[in-house]
Design brief:
This protein has 137 residues and is of the alpha+beta class. It has two helices and four strands.
């Protein structure tokens, strides 16, 4: 089971859209649990992988960590215990496949943008070099 804070990834890759704000602190991160029986409404006490978006190097205040951990645990338990969880996983997997199929095309488009920018810089440098050479002739 995987829980992501927020909806889709931000275009700049720094986080996710709609990241939750708890006690005035925007939270970022995710929690992956491979053992569905390993969590309950009370455990794990704190969810690893959740951090402050503004200061990831600083710990979350205890009340904020406790609140977001209880929310994530409740959502995970509710999801795990659904009768249609296998169908939900299949739908989520199909959605992920579409994203993965689009990723190479997006990467190529990004590389082409970088290539065009590099070519523009090269052209400008060559023009500047030619102008400088004409001054010394």
């Amino acid at each position: 089971m995987s829980v992501q804070l927020g909806s889709g990834p931000l275009p700049d890759g720094t986080g996710r859209e709609d990241e939750p704000v708890v006690n005035g602190i925007r939270l970022r991160g995710s929690w992956n649990c491979t053992d569905a029986g390993a969590f309950t409404l009370a455990l794990p006490e704190s969810i690893p992988g959740v951090r402050r978006a503004d200061r990831p190097d600083r710990p979350l205040p205890a009340p904020t960590a406790a609140w977001i951990s209880s929310v994530i645990r409740a959502l995970a338990v509710a999801y795990r215990d659904r009768n249609d969880v296998d169908v939900l996983r299949l739908v989520a997997g199909k959605s992920r496949v579409d994203q993965l199929r689009q990723a190479p095309a997006q990467a190529v488009a990004e590389l082409r943008r970088h290539e065009a920018a590099a070519e523009a810089r090269l052209t400008a440098a060559r023009e500047a070099e030619a102008a400088f050479a004409s001054l010394s002739a």
